[in-house]
Amino acid sequence: VGNSSVLICPPKSNVSMVTWKISPRVGGPCTLGYRAGQNKTNTTNCSDSMNWKFTIYPKPTLEIRQVGIAHEGNYTCEVVTTEGNFHETYQLTVLVPPRLILFCDEHGNPTCEAAAGKLAAHISWVLENNSTLKEQSHDNGTVTVLSKFTAYRANGANTACVVYHPAGNQSKSIAC
């Protein structure tokens, strides 16, 4: 989330036309077309965050700026050459790093929350793993994972929570 993503079609010689057909999970489809002979581009129903990325050597490259969950979906590139048509399909999945929240609950138990991440995070505790776990799915595809440390001898001791996620790992410690 928030970064740019670049998708590249198979590089071919003698390209006459390139078309990106985008089917996001949310919203309607969009297309971007490029005619090499006329050096023309055309965009239909695409957001401003999606556009061609042209470099010194023209490749059929799509750039998505400020990637968000709404960009998830299938991206198919069709390259038309004198040798035939070539397709490349990507399935874009957006990772959202969770917010790590660590607090003491009303009973003095350390509680670790990995809020609104995509994919669901894994939570563990340093030194012991005596905990309860709950997951809550949200409408936007994110998941909040809540883990409560339940070891009785943790009172007053520093306890560390570690959140493992494909977008990056995080840890915090607390004494309750």
From TrEMBL:
Membrane topology: Single-pass membrane protein
Subcellular localization: Membrane
Major subcellular location class: membrane
GO BP, sorted A to Z: regulation of neuroinflammatory response
Gene Ontology MF term list: signaling receptor activity
Domain Ig-like: 1-93, 111-175
One Pfam match: V-set
Family: Belongs to the CD200R family.
Annotated protein name in UniProt: MOR1A protein
Organism expressing this protein natively: Rhynochetos jubatus (kagu)
